[in-house]
Amino acid sequence: MSLNDDLVAPFLDVPPAPRTPKHAERDGNSEKGPASEHLLPHLNRASSFRKTMINTTKCFIGAASFELPWAFMQAGLVGSVAGVCFLAAISSFSLQRLAMCPVLVHETTQARAIRSNTHEGEIRDEARGLYLTYPAIGRVCFGAWGEAVSWFGVLAMTLGVAGSYFVFIATTMAELTDLDMNAWLAITLVVVSVFSWLRRLSVLAYTSAFGIMALILAVVVTSVDAAQNHTPNVGDLDFWKWDTYPLFLGNAGFLYLISTAILPLAQDMETPERFPGALNNSIVFVTLLNLAFAIFAWASYGSCDEHHDDDDEKTCVQSNVIDNLTAGGLATTVKLLLCVDLLFTSIMFLYPVNEAIEEQIFGPPKANPMRSPHVSFVLDEEEGRNHLGVCGQLDKWITWKKNMVRTCLAVAVALVAHLVPSFSLLTGLTGGFGNNILGFILPPVYYWTLKEKAGAWVDEKGKRIRVFEQGALLFTFLFGCFFLVLSTYSFIAAIASS
Fold it and tell me: What pLDDT does 392 receive?
């Protein structure tokens, strides 16, 4: 492959080149066993453990971190720390089960093929490709209505959350420059559209790393400003507040809800069985960073009570701590860093939806046998190498058609941002609604259903087993329903009061 091909390849709808043990050693992974056992599976899984953890962390962290100090004030010190840790634990449980669903789908279809004496390929169309999307899993579990509910949640969350990021970038840059918001929306649209053509998460790891560094720098700069102008006093902080606790949940809940990105992140790993480790490492890092920053900023700027004027940005912590910053170069630096961070976060959030929409429109890429659902079961090593030659003959028009579809989604996000130019409104309306459906309600339902289809909840004697895990799934589902009602009620109440 030439240098020019190396530069263009990430944008093409083709599998990456086979990885060698040298590549695996460089990325911190090792391949075991003969080459024939690992050549085909690794053709489509290009992300190492480290790159997956970087991409996952990028999905977690964003502008929501700068709303946490105010949210902590609503819950109290003990209440906020306990709440964040609980959300981290239940999110880890739910997202890990979601990541396991593609494996369960393949196991279920194989079992059905054996029971019905049918070739796997004749029923594998339910899986709709090696990379399973959220709607595809919904279809396997509950047919058309499961697919429809999944699509509703995916589109609602993506348009709302990505739209809110577009709004933040455009309004912030409009404040700092002579261009208006619509001009910056157009600029953001062009940049995101081009990056959305990337088809490898391993490549996006580099942009994600840059976004993570931008956010960490923004946190550091904000903390420096707080330390220079205020004296932190943890002793003055409330320990627990029940009356405003729902406001805390409504803000803190967005920290861990990245459900649409979980499926491609897990399936793109060279070693998918290590994804829980990458996910948990990311969650621990994000949790510790947010706890330290939120408590320090809240203690520095102080609580808003009867002794403070809530409208005065300098007397207590504001709903967005950026408003507490001293005007000047530091405030401008933080805003610019956040714009960079949210730009790359938008790209990560659009990736899985683009994959799902392409599959819905164009179907599984049958012209590329190495991405066929039959690859790992039908082709042996020699056949796989022969098909690689076929894959080299690309249909460039199909690739560009898919690029235009990805551009259309970015245009739709920009249109939502133009019609509803409010960061908090978009986040509260669509983020809370879509995130709860996809993050807490559907994952335990889909996971339990796939396990039930595989007969994993009963032993050979028909007795129920793994009762604790089933109870945890039920609890997660009920919490998701409660959180959905709470988020919707809080949003409607906020709109009514304003």
Answer: 44
